[in-house]
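Hello again, I could really use a second opinion on something today. I've dropped the whole record in just underneath, so have a look.
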Amino acid sequence: MNSFAVLADPVRRRMVELLSEVEAPAGRIGAVVMAEFGIGQPAVSNQLRVLREAEIVSAERQGSQRIYRIVPGALDDIAAWVDRYGRLWSQRLDALETELARGSSGGHGSARPDGGR
């Protein structure tokens, strides 16, 4: 499953948000998403498994807990996609701004069919 598909689910997105701040045990992640989304512990475990299998997060046993963390570079494909399209929109919006500025300075004449009368 690609990163976009994995993060299409709001519960998994929230888990990634939580882990972007600090690594955390499964219980802490579960408590937050169970309260926010009204899901049970089996659903939390399933969502964490999906994130692990997609290699977006990793888990390490520490005593009786599993500590989860974001895998460095796991979301680089999403960052690259956003960057590519962000530049495209930036260029298009700059061009639109130029055209709007030309129009407001009277460079194109009246847009009304009667010549502005």
